[in-house]
């Protein structure tokens, strides 16, 4: 194969709807860039505490006991480590291509995704790929746009159904591979999965529902159950009762209560703010054409939040006319891992199309994520982000 603070107030949604299209001159935040070259400190165990590096997370978060499921029979999610029903855990996720530009805002049901990827596409715009585990009852997801090949390789490692509206010709070889299973709303056979709204103009008015996707997936003869193509396990997790505070890394764990990605995504200029009360990172954007503010899900009025943030510095090529190709695997590159208000330098690697991307600390140990949702930011090698 060719490798090339929660906002529940509806006013916040209305502000986003009315602000888009009005250009606003917002100064860049002044923040410091960390030093990634500090010598590694070898922990005595993967989650060993370090008295010289005090905790900054809430005691309530530390003491939360999730050792028993809320209901009998529930199992751990392979995507978030949260307790889910067995039928949810056994059903393959969907990977939905979602544009992130002023005409596409607000998004719907994005806060329900277990994992969200962000990467540049042409013109330094970014596109999101949302991985949904519990998707069958969602009524409005999107909007939905076209696929790029590198997103497919990230979707493969979750054995996810690709959901998109067409794409450039160079995705054709990948789509035609026998193991690739997708729902393409540009095809007559799949068009019934897409519905369009009248509140905005095309191409930003195409959405999908869980029931519509399931109908097409069933009609195409795809299996809803995992096919055994991916690694048996993906992320390594710890529980909410014994969280990974990164204190075991001592001074190598940098304070990270504000993460600014504007140097990597100059049009969306997203940033994350850490909330000590719930231990989550809240996502906002300086989106070009919209006012600065929280990234809100219009389906429920909630701001997007994440427990873990992963940064992948990634080698890329320009294919012409602005189209990009990222080297998703057969490589080792560096990045960062942020959780609970701290961050450490990591290296990542992905060995095969369906193999998991794995992240290692500077001692060569695979990192341990905290239970919850994860944001993965793909960064063009040479671009810089900052945090403080």
Q: What is the mean predicted local confidence, pLDDT?
A: 87
Runs in which pLDDT lies below 50 for 5 or more consecutive residues are 1-19, 21-60
Distance between the termini: 41 Å
Q: What does the largest sheet look like?
A: 11 strands, mixed
Number of helices: 6
Q: How many strand units?
A: 28
Rg over alpha carbons:
20 Å
Beta fraction:
25-35%
Structural write-up:
With 388 residues, this protein is mostly beta strands. It has helices at residues 10-19, 59-63, 86-90, 149-156, 172-175, 210-219, and strands at residues 75-76, 83-84, 94-100, 115-120, 126-132, 141-142, 161-164, 182-184, 194-196, 206-208, 237-238, 254-255, 258-260, 270-275, 280-285, 293-294, 296-297, 302-303, 305-306, 308-314, 316-320, 323-326, 332-339, 342-349, 358-360, 369-370, 374-380, 386-387. The strands form 7 sheets. Strands 3, 4, 5, 7, 8, 12, 20, 23, 24, 25 and 27 form an 11-stranded mixed sheet that branches. Strands 13, 14, 15, 16, 19 and 28 form a 6-stranded antiparallel sheet that branches. Strand 15 and strand 16 (293-294) form a beta hairpin. The longest helix is centred in the first third of the chain and has 10 residues, at 10-19. The radius of gyration is 20 Å and the shape is globular. The model is unreliable at 1-19 and 21-60 (pLDDT under 50).
Key phrases:
single chain; 388 residues; mainly beta; 11-stranded mixed beta sheet; 6-stranded antiparallel beta sheet; 6 helices; disordered N terminus
Secondary-structure topology with pairs:
Elements: H1 10-19, H2 59-63, E1 75-76, E2 83-84, H3 86-90, E3 94-100, E4 115-120, E5 126-132, E6 141-142, H4 149-156, E7 161-164, H5 172-175, E8 182-184, E9 194-196, E10 206-208, H6 210-219, E11 237-238, E12 254-255, E13 258-260, E14 270-275, E15 280-285, E16 293-294, E17 296-297, E18 302-303, E19 305-306, E20 308-314, E21 316-320, E22 323-326, E23 332-339, E24 342-349, E25 358-360, E26 369-370, E27 374-380, E28 386-387
Parallel strand pairs: 3-7, 4-27, 7-8, 11-26, 20-27
Antiparallel strand pairs: 1-2, 3-5, 4-5, 6-10, 9-10, 12-24, 13-14, 13-28, 14-15, 15-16, 15-19, 17-18, 20-23, 21-22, 23-24, 24-25
